[in-house]
Amino acid sequence: MDSNLAAGLAMIGAIGPGIGLGIGFSKAMEALGRNPEASGAIFVPYILGLALTEAIGIYCLVVALILIFAG
Amino acid sequence: MAEEEGESLIHIALGGEELFAIGPFVVTNSMIGALLASLLLLAAAWYVTRQSTLIPSRLQGLLELPVEWVAGIVAGSTSRWRGYVALVIGFFLMILVANWLGLLPGVGTIGLRHGEELVPFVRPAAADLNFTLGLAIITFVVFVWWGIRINGPGGYLKELIGEPRYMAPLMFPIHLISELSRLVSLSMRLFGNVFAGEVLIATMLALTTATVFVLPLAFFVPSIFLGLELLFGAVQAIVFALLTMTYITMAIAEHDGGHEPEHDPRDDHGEPDVHPASSPA
User: Fold this and answer.
1) Fewest CB within 10 angstroms: B75, B157, B179, B195, which?
2) What CATH number does residue A53 fall under?
3) Torsion angle of C-alpha atoms B255, B260, B264, B268, degrees rounded to 10
4) Structural domain of residue A65, as residue ranges?
């Protein structure tokens, strides 16, 4: 039971990446709206940025899953 | 009671499970998944190269499409892209096929029963940290090797020490940890995404199974998440391949002082506008 509670607490850390992903996505859409021809140039840095932001949330998820299934 | 039923419905192992052992060499079900993905890729490569034509047939065009797309992105990174384009495409195809193979029906559900728990024959390869860590170690070795090859061992050490020389005692451990953290972040990102996808689908199935006699939710809700996993599997394959490319590009571009790579007349096809070296890591 303790490890389940700890897993829930660990997922609080997913709030930050959630906000960060929203900011990144909105800025990418803004850039695309200003300059639609730049979609090819935006795509790769955009995907990399989202992946690096999302990784923080994934760390929380991995910690939570380890706590549930191995703790 | 309900909780116990739920727990037996969602049986999820964190790592690969042992199927059989050849002497001291233990074969796990995630190794079978990786092997199946490699065999599928080998068969596709053999088919395409055996009867390839200049004007591709429909199947050949379909199989060449992802290769050309990734090659186009890699060609825009540095002038030395020919040295690592095969590795990046290989990572992309391997992870893509391994992820999508894990979504097929029967993977993770057909297996042998050992007492209470089911040991499936095939497990999606990236849902095992051993697979993703193995790929990340390959990436690590390759980008450190490129850094040493371009800058020389002394130049590589100089990059680790940093610019103001008197800050070396502080900056050297930080740079070292940031290099090593790429290993952790690459492997954990892929493992976390794929494993979380497995858990998500299993959870959705367990949540909707009780409604099967009233509403056919158990057929629709997990299939929505299966479609989502199809997308995530492709995105994670792209992300792993592009991060590998970015790390190698950074190891090469540090030599030029972070300037844009010089133009090579050979790399005219593709997307020359893409400069992934300027993205953070």
Assistant:
1) B157
2) 1.20.20.10
3) 140
4) 2-69
